[in-house]
Amino acid sequence: MKVEKFKVITINGIVLFSDHVDPTAFHGTLRIFVSGWRDNSMLPRGLLYEGVSNEPMLLSGGSAAQSSALQCYDALLCIQHEDETGAFLTHMREYMPPAHRRLIETLSVCPSLRDFILSHPSSDLCQAFNSCISALVDLRNYHLKTVAKYVILPGSQAMGCPLRGVGTTLNTTGTGGSSFMVFLKSTRNATQKALIQERPSASRETEI
Ligand code: HEM
């Protein structure tokens, strides 16, 4: 299979694919190598690292969920990821450098920026906060479309492929074994929930 068309740009540890990446080549070649060996039916017991451990190790594949940038924004903007989604993102911190993990933990326990804005009503502050949230919602929506283009669509077209079993597992589960479309929609929805509803200002109330 031809892979020379891959164009990969690394931004803060995140691998960003340009429009030149062929979804079928991504799905059929690269994704298999980043799938990891945790919740992976091909390697249910994990992988034995000879000379490192006597027991097989279960490790998730590479994912931007392990990038500290997005988790820092979430903590700063008080975006709450609940239940399984929150647990998965917290688990992904184990793959970050310890200093990055500590930064996210520190931001999470700092006085809440959202509460500050709510208790000091200012239209400018509120709009600035909401534009940050909206930008993150847009990013997560764009990302959902990218995942559909690079994983769901080529996965549904991979009939007859010798790696079909691998594809089936990887089409519905993320690198951590999550059902990733449910997970990704949940992170997007939690982001949307953080928007502050602007109350009408006193002057506008008197105008009406
Ligand atoms: C072809 C390109 C991409 C594919 C197929 C893809 C796929 C996925 C999948 C399946 C997940 C679910 C969790 C997991 O499996 O680990 C995920 C999570 C995530 N991805 Fe990507 N991704 C791509 C590119 C990117 C890029 C370029 C970014 C950053 C700008 C990014 C940021 C994230 C983040 C932050 C998460 C964690 C969920 C969240 O916080 O909303 N991904 N990705």
Automatic annotation (TrEMBL):
What GO terms describe the biological role, i.e. biological process, of this protein? 'de novo' NAD+ biosynthetic process from L-tryptophan; L-tryptophan catabolic process to kynurenine
Q: Which domain of life is it from?
A: Eukaryota
| Record-linked Gene3D superfamilies | 1.20.58.480
Which Pfam families does its entry note? IDO
Assigned keywords, A-Z: Heme, Iron, Metal-binding, Tryptophan catabolism
Q: Does the keyword Coiled coil apply?
A: no
Q: Record keywords: Chloroplast included?
A: no
Q: Where does heme b bind?
A: H143
GO molecular function (one): heme binding
Instruction: Kindly state one GO CC term assigned in the UniProt record.
Output: cytoplasm
Q: What is this protein called?
A: Indoleamine 2,3-dioxygenase
Q: What organism does the UniProt record list as the source? A: Dissostichus mawsoni (Antarctic cod)
